[in-house]
Design goal:
heterodimer; A: about 230 residues; mainly alpha; 8 helices; about 80% helix; B: about 230 residues; 6 helices; about 75% helix
């Protein structure tokens, strides 16, 4: 009698655990993406005249731009690791829905980018002299919304880009136009929240982020099986 | 999976035929009418005449992009190679039209707004339409296997159609400066009859020209496939 096949989310969780276990044991991508993010935060600081623009105005923009580029580095790896020894074929013959593979990869990537942010946001508060507690409480929720949107798009395009001739170049080119609403809305929302403006002013931007997440998580889950047909 | 239905004609048709040159003359005729036979607008003077080209190109670009999105859905649904060829052809024409919009705009913006470029909602949206269309074509160029190319670009075409409302909404909330529509608005067009006629002629000439360009490009795609099969 064949073993019982796991459901959509149970299978997704198995794929996510596999990816996170690989990352936990090698830590190669996490460290490089983290260092890239910290370098980005530091480098941006020197690109501005500190007497012309206050750190409070700069910080959110710097964080979200750096985070976007750093995310791309990590996302490229997501399907890059499956190329070695044709591991992707093994994933595809597994008795699980194709959507589970996408969701599993996306869950692992979300944990990955949130782990990077967990270090990057306090570092931002340190380097740009922001009040730590308010930075964490205001940027935290925005970060979760932004990460889900970024990962949903990035994971799908990663699976496409690895099969093309311009793999490393194509992922940013495909993804960045899609990241524009995320960067714009996150930066606008967090600037207002960090400056202590009323929460209502950030709500329209948070709504855009939430709507983006819902639309693209669903659309990318549906679209993913089309990208891996053999 | 079913293989794509090839509909290669026994003899290939010419890329540029009489209808194509008629379309070229149509655009040239529209330009002559815009320059010599349309009155100057009172406040903006000669700069306003860019409007007839700018808006005609913008409408053509929107239409071409709608064709890309629709044919992308059709391809994933029916797996018809014709839908993919049409998407590719419309995508290239869309890039051309968006480029015309983005280059004619600044020539109007400099004398009227006093700046070549501004981060207005519509300008930003058009710029990103250009980026997305360009990356769509780069993606197509980066994949050799025809079925994979068609599937990937269809997925991108559909996702891009979902993205446009988000970019539009977010950049609109960011800031807007662009003039409101003059002709395509709920109430009556506020253009004088003579100018309205020029506008209509220009839009029709542009749409017809773009249609002919897509047709020529579609035939080129067919020729390319024939050449690939021969090798």
């Amino acid at each position: 009698m064949p073993a019982e096949t796991p459901g959509l989310f149970a299978a997704a969780w198995i794929v996510a655990r596999k990816d996170l276990a690989i990352e936990l044991r090698t830590r190669s991508a996490f460290l490089s993406v983290l260092v890239f993010t910290l370098l980005g935060l530091v480098t941006f600081f020197f690109a501005w005249d500190p007497t012309a623009a206050s750190a409070l105005d700069l910080a959110p923009g710097v964080l979200w731009v750096t985070f976007t580029f750093a995310g791309l580095l990590g996302l490229h790896r997501s399907f890059g690791v499956e190329m070695q020894d044709r591991a992707m074929d093994a994933l595809l013959v597994a008795p699980v829905a194709r959507e589970s593979i996408y969701l599993g990869k996306a869950i692992a990537n979300t944990v990955f980018v949130l782990a990077v942010l967990l270090v990057a946001v306090p570092a931002l508060a340190l380097f740009y002299n922001l009040p730590l507690l308010r930075t964490l409480t205001t940027l935290g929720p925005v970060a979760v919304l932004a990460a889900v949107g970024l990962v949903s798009i990035g994971t799908l395009f990663s699976s496409m880009a690895v099969n093309t001739r311009l793999a490393e170049l194509l992922l940013p080119m495909l993804s960045l136009p899609f990241f524009v609403p995320i960067v714009l809305a996150s930066a606008q929302a967090s600037t207002r929240l960090l400056a202590g403006r009323p929460f209502d002013e950030a709500v329209p931007w948070l709504k855009i982020l939430l709507a983006f997440d819902i639309v693209f998580v669903l659309a990318c889950t549906v679209a993913f099986p089309f990208t891996i047909e053999e | 999976m079913t293989s794509p239905t090839h509909s290669l004609p026994p003899t290939s048709r010419p890329l540029f035929d009489g209808l194509f040159f008629l379309a070229v003359f149509g655009v040239l005729g529209a330009v002559v009418r815009i320059v010599f036979f349309t009155p100057y607008e009172l406040a903006q003077g000669a700069a306003q005449k860019i409007y007839y080209i700018h808006v005609a190109a913008a409408l053509s670009a929107y239409l071409a992009l709608a064709v890309v999105a629709t044919t992308s859905i059709v391809f994933l649904w029916l797996r018809d190679a014709r839908a993919d060829r049409l998407a590719e052809s419309a995508g290239e024409v869309a890039l051309l039209c968006t480029t015309v919009v983005l280059t004619t705009g600044p020539f109007w913006g400099k004398p009227i707004w006093g700046t070549w470029w501004t981060w207005d909602a519509r300008l930003t949206l058009t710029l990103f339409l250009w980026f997305i269309t360009a990356s769509y074509l780069v993606l197509r160029g980066a994949i050799d296997e025809p079925m994979m190319r068609a599937r990937y670009s269809s997925v991108l075409g559909i996702l891009a159609a979902l993205l446009i409302p988000f970019i539009h909404l977010s950049v609109y909330m960011f800031r807007t400066l662009h003039p409101d529509p003059i002709v395509l608005k709920p109430d009556r067009p506020s253009l004088p009859p003579e100018m309205l006629l020029t506008f209509v002629i220009s839009v029709l000439a542009f749409l017809f020209f773009c249609f002919m360009l897509v047709r020529a490009r579609y035939r080129l795609a067919l020729l390319r496939e024939l050449a690939e099969e021969a090798t």
